[in-house]
Amino acid sequence: MSRRKQIYEGKAKILFEGPEPGTLVQYFKDDATAFNAQKKATLDGKGILNNRISEFVMLRLGEIGIPTHFIKRLNMREQLIKEVEIIPLEVICRNIAAGTMSKRLGIEEGEKLPRSIVEFCLKRDDLGDPLIAEEHIHAFGWATHAELDEMIAMTLRINDYLQGMFAGIGIKLVDFKIEFGRLANEDGGHQVILADEISPDSCRLWDAETDRKLDKDRFRRDLGGVTEAYTEVASRLGILKENQNKHAPNLSVVSNDD
Ligand code: C5P
Fold it and tell me: Is 175 in the pocket of ligand 1 (CB under 6 A)?
């Protein structure tokens, strides 16, 4: 790992130069942060679980025709991805009120929204990733009209698919955050593709029967059992071998290669 050139270090991931031009290696750390990194911890095995869950989700989305940056998983903590220019927006899709929407609009957490709602935040840690309107995106040129239309269409399609996928394993998809990037074409143009990760760090996932939280809110709200919850998500998705110790993710993750 240390011999490769580091391109970028984020709160939960590191990007390294990839083996071929146009590729990067995305490394999943065990670090967890919340409230714009005011709260920090290391959660043993989280990076391994997120690597596997994100791989699983990106592969399923690829199968339904969503273009993604994912190429292949390299090992327990790393995946090979396509290098993109990240569009500086966090695209949030919500089905059930929670988190900042509940606080901002005074809607009780858990209330089903009249329809799925897509929101945008500017990716600016120093400003706390503020909520912005489409008008800001157009006026400041953060994305073109065509790119924004594509991002919204892909987000709603991803939401539809993931809601169904999670419903099938007894989990409600409350909300999620995704990021998109521009992948350069040979003709000098580009294509907008799904980038970053989709994992319990970036989604709210509640048990369908009990509303028990199976996501990063367990860390944000000091509920405990964070890795156990992520392990449960991986296990329900069929990523973990059933007869192994679910609290030892570094031992029990099933390899694609075996
Ligand atoms: O905090 P808020 O309610 O706005 O979060 C909405 C969704 O976006 C949650 O699933 C949360 O995990 C995700 N999110 C994220 N990264 C951020 C902000 C929110 O993954 N910087």
Answer: yes
Query: How far apart are the C-alpha atoms of 56 and 234, rounded to whole Å?
Result: 9
Ligand 1 atom 7: residue of nearest CA: 176
| Report field, pTM of the whole predicted structure over 0.90 | yes
- Please indicate whether residue 204, judged by its CB atom, sits closer than 6 Å to ligand 1: yes
pLDDT in tens, 47-61: 999 999 999 999 999
SS3 content of the chain, % helix, strand, coil (to 5): 30, 35, 40
What is the domain-level CATH number for residue 117? 3.30.470.20
- Structurally, the chain folds into a number of domains equal to 1
DSSP β-ladder status, 31-34 and 190-195: unpaired
Residue 192 contacts residue 205 (beta carbons within 8 Å): no
Query: C-alpha dihedral over 81, 160, 99, 209, to 10 degrees?
Result: -110
CA distance 25 to 184: 18
180 domain residue, yes or no = yes
